[in-house]
Amino acid sequence: MANTAQARKRARQAVKQNAHNSSQRSTLRTAIKAVRKAIEAGDKAAAAVIYQNSISTVDRIADKKIIHKNKAARHKSRLSAAIKALAA
Asked: CATH class for domain 5-84?
């Protein structure tokens, strides 16, 4: 348990920050699932539009360092490749 006032405050802040970051990660997962759902439906045009909206979410969360930038790049790359594969 935190003994000093500073440590108690940091513990309170950590709880709030953890809740915020968890919410942001949930938003990220939802955005990725929306793209995957559009890809599974087979509509390339709709998938491309949803992909563009999702990419801004992924980048924003990576910029805030909630996920690593390489993880964001990996998600974007794999989703883009899946959309491109729809034509074939």
From this structure: mainly alpha
